[in-house]
Amino acid sequence: MPSAKRLSSVAQRLPYLLPGPSAIALSPGRANDWDSIAVAHTDRREVSTWNFVRATRGRHWLDPRRFHGKGGEALRVHRRTIATCLCMTRCGNFVVIGYSSGDVAKFNMQSGLEYGEFGNKGKVHESTVIGVHVTSVNRVLITVGRGEVKFWNFSTCKLIDTLDITSSPRFSKFHDESDTLALALSTGEVMLVNVVNRKIFRRFNNPVTHVCTDLALSSDGTMMVTTHRCDPLIKTWDVVDCKLIDCFRVQRPATSVAFSPADDLLATTHTACLGVYLWDNRATYQRLHLKPLPEDYVPPNTAGFIELPTERLSTRNLD
User: Which BP terms does GO give this entry (predicted)?
Assistant: First the structure.
């Protein structure tokens, strides 16, 4: 038999390439035993799994059974359904997937089989599922939809409670260490929800023009950083006092932000920039006396913007 030829050109590889990722979830808990990465792809319903140790495509395509059905009826109904969000448990055994149809499905990462059924035959929300999160010990599943947040028993798949919110969230983030759910609303407001008692305990107001694009909580949950579009601002909030303590304008709008594990560095990415930029958190090295700023504070245009960190180490002060 003739030897297989390597697909060297982009045109030859294109039919075999997957669409770009829209959401990624991973857990190192069982990375040596089975696939540890799940990826949702743009405009696709099926979620792929990947093996981190072997750096290869995994064994499974995750797709709920109810989306197929008999005679193609369910297939026609869910033909335009896509996976919108996903979350993997810390132990690495399960992945939970949210869909544009309002369905939520739980899969076992080892077997690729679906486990349990949330809501009415998997229907959890009447609209797109915006976020799914699981607490660190797999007790509670949190699903975020338009105008509501639902809390489910992860094992029995039974509904525990529903929290109604005033506006539709743009995205959600879950902070494991403090059991805090952060919701960035379309109105610019950011809410913090205590998952234990399922109550809103902090509200941070932003103008409608300062819609939040991403946020990050420090490891102890006492500080929050938010990034905003239109006016490229990066804001720092004191969660304990619910006050704005820092706000500066950068050259390009930030698209994502994250704290380092020790909270000594802040990483950001920016529009039309390929790099990841690191900012030093001076509060970890010296005692700072920060005065609260008004919630609607915006740096004056005369103040200019803060330049992004350079790619080279400055040696001006090392001599």
Answer: rRNA processing
